[in-house]
């Protein structure tokens, strides 16, 4: 790193604390999970196979011989499948339990007697669950390897420096989880209560036969054997053709079809809506509390490092002798002080400006305490803006960066009072981004990320389905006012093309900009600026005043709240750095096929 870090007072460093060298840090990073264990692959595999299994599963109509009814087993299957889409990414510990449980339920309940297509789909679901379980196991094994390497690099252990404050990690998630689980338990009881009441009516009821004379959206009109006309509620009225014979149960004014017992679907839906986030929060809260308690309970490994806080408040940790600026991991930190004490802040507020935030983004020397691993908890001793020592602790689990470069503060998030200060800080950030780039003969390319591609594919499917529906309606029923929404669907086509097709390629001649339908070239000498606007659009401006736009790519407020750094934001940052640092531009030349 080119800048000198803010030093930490020698009295704040426990005696015998080793520096975390780049060699040890690189070895620690190399123990991260294998590429095949990335949650994205497991989530996509499970999502595709579950949708396939649902699509090909036969749905027999309700009948007296095979009545419909509350499907608690199906609710459990659906709950585990939906929950695993999140647990695979964030809670591998829960995945190790949920994935085998769902696989066993599918094997026991779906495979026997299934036709060939349904059998293949459910076997694929079991395969996706096996992949997810193996990926979760690999991620937990990688954490164990990282813990061992941390302990080996530290050599000695030290207790946490005081004050460490009350143990608060996990309290709020656990409290919210218990409330949600109570709601889910209440919904289960209400569903069982409805089933019990239905069974009592069945015991007292008489059975009568009737013919269907008409259907409504939620009922059927019947004529009984004694020539009475009655209307009975039906969840699936389309299953009972006009003229068919059905059996009805009557207990005074209470009536229902034999084929349709009480359905607790509404209560089951509430169970899933409350129970899934409740279980997730409970697991996350218990794990966080256990890790935080373990951090406080006994002496832990301590290592000297460098750290920097970005403009979103996230702390990035580097090796003590790092010279490349590649972060090792990141986390959110909060001051560790006794109740009632005021934390020393690294963020200042100007009373003359509404919520004007100036974050200390300088590099600082620091000491981390704890067995480091992805998802772990740690404490950090560093300095505030005035150089005074402070103790902080994790407010979020440790996360590894997605790329070797690591996220940096985005230009559109900086807010300062004076224009000259703004310019100097923008330049300082651009210089930090430039420090992560190296001259190369290879082309630099940016394009849509996996989330944007998924959104584009989903939007494409929705637009195609809508166009197909309205086209069929136009061909069968002729033109009508109901066709007008088709014009609205056509307007989405350009957004889909942008989400899927945008590309920016940098070579020695300049930038090649591929939008929804065309490709433009901007020579380096004519590039004036690259900007990500507050409306979520990208602008590449030329010196002649013209601009190239990508409209509707992102949502800046949501990205700041979720602390995301999408590919188009990274592109704007790095293109700006290349504009101001010509020595970093690629020396190779691109061909037309590189632009698309």
Can you describe what's shown?
The chain is α+β, with helices and mostly antiparallel strands. The protein is 42% helix and 20% strand. The protein contains twelve helices and 22 strands. The chain has helices spanning 22-30, 39-56, 72-90, 92-109, 116-154, 171-204, 265-297, 419-435, 450-477, 485-501, 556-562, 567-580; strands spanning 18-19, 157-158, 206-215, 219-224, 229-233, 245-251, 254-257, 300-309, 314-319, 329-335, 347-350, 356-359, 364-369, 379-383, 389-394, 444-446, 503-507, 510-514, 519-523, 527-532, 538-542, 547-550. The strands form five sheets. It has a six-stranded antiparallel beta barrel. Strands 5-4-3-6-7 form a five-stranded antiparallel sheet. A four-stranded antiparallel sheet has the order 16-17-18-19, covered by helices on one side. A hairpin with a 4-residue loop joins strand 21 (538-542) and strand 22 (547-550). It is globular and about 95 Å long. The chain starts with 17 loop residues before the first strand and ends in a 16-residue tail after the last helix. 31% of the residues are buried. The model is unreliable at 337-357 and 404-422 (pLDDT under 50).
